[in-house]
Amino acid sequence: MSSTPVIDVEHLHLAYGDFHAVKDVSFRVARGELYALLGTNGAGKTSTLEIVEGHRRATSGTVRVFGRDPRDRAAVRPRMGVMLQESGFSPDLTVAESVRLFGELSRRRDSVPRVLAVAGLTHKAGTRAAQLSGGEKRRLDFATAVYGTPELVFLDEPTTGLDIQSRDALWDAVDRLREDGSTVVLTTHYLEEAQQRADRIGLMHRGTLHQEGTVHELTRTLPATIRFTLADGAPELPLPAVRRDDGRVLVETFDLQADLYTLLGWAHAHATELRGIEAGPTRLDDVFRALDNP
Ligand SMILES: Nc1ncnc2c1ncn2[C@@H]1O[C@H](COP(=O)(O)OP(=O)(O)OP(=O)(O)O)[C@@H](O)[C@H]1O
């Protein structure tokens, strides 16, 4: 029998006046999972998460976090860490002081130097928050969210504004959190990050949970692609493809391996170069593009 979910959202509804931002959304997140709540702009992700985090009251529906109402702050907050898109650090406090203050408020135990090291901020310990760069502020947000290794961590667009080294370091830190058993809820517009990391994805669109499942479940109804460029006068292709006037070719396929094999055999037999060939499975980007626009 599966254990009680860490997050259990049933028929959640949120209206801002006449506008229904979240409509009948239900999902569960199991212990240890990395669940990515993704969606188009204005889909209702932030509104949903604000309710799950206990910051906002639902219009109707039930939300349970660790089996409790998330507005029961005393019971729930010590068990969760939240990395918001914008957090309010006092500009006069140093990085180390900010981490200590937020750590004490969380009521979890940890060591400030450890958390600074995890977030890659050891060298900025004595710098005032006001003097941090955008990426360093994100790291400070991350540091306060993971102080004390909470059982549940919300990461709201955690890598926005981070350079590639900082992104890699952040994801390494998330991997370590997960090894320690933390459950992670992620929102991001960097779909490849969700594609690589999420155990399951909830895809919101216009206030509803439009699709939910693993990456494989979300992408399997859409074709994979092969792209390359052919020189003028190349012979007829061995499979159906979209050929542009400038020589670019797009093949859509549900059997990537077999079609690639056919194509490479054909190119070899005709001594034809498939310039810049790229073959890839269906990506989450494709799932998003298939959504109807507002
Ligand atoms: N306080 C508010 N009052 C009225 N409407 C709001 C309020 N907050 C959000 N909305 C509207 O609710 C909808 C959902 O907003 P929300 O911020 O939850 O979307 P989102 O999925 O997080 O979007 P994004 O990816 O753009 O951050 C949007 O149309 C937004 O304009």
Summed up, the domain count is 2
Residue-averaged pLDDT: 92
Which structural category do the helix and sheet elements fall into? alpha/beta
Q: Kindly report the CATH topology of the largest domain.
A: Rossmann fold
Helix-strand topology string: EEEHEHEHHHEHEHEEHEEEHEH
The top-level CATH class of the largest domain is: Alpha Beta
The largest beta-sheet arranges its strands as 5-6-7-3-8-9
Low-confidence regions? none
Based on CA atoms alone, the radius of gyration comes out at 23 Å
What small molecules accompany the polymer chains?
adenosine-5'-triphosphate
Number of helices: 10
CATH architecture of the largest domain: 3-Layer(aba) Sandwich
Description:
The protein folds into 2 domains: about 210 residues, 3-Layer(aba) Sandwich (Rossmann fold); about 70 residues, no CATH class. Strands 5-6-7-3-8-9 form a 6-stranded mixed sheet. It starts with 6 loop residues before the first strand and ends in a 5-residue tail after the last helix. It is about 30% helix and about 25% strand. The chain has about 290 residues and is α/β, with parallel strands linked by helices. Helix 3 crosses helix 4. It is found in: Cell membrane. This is ABC transporter ATP-binding protein. One of its GO terms (molecular function) is ATP binding.
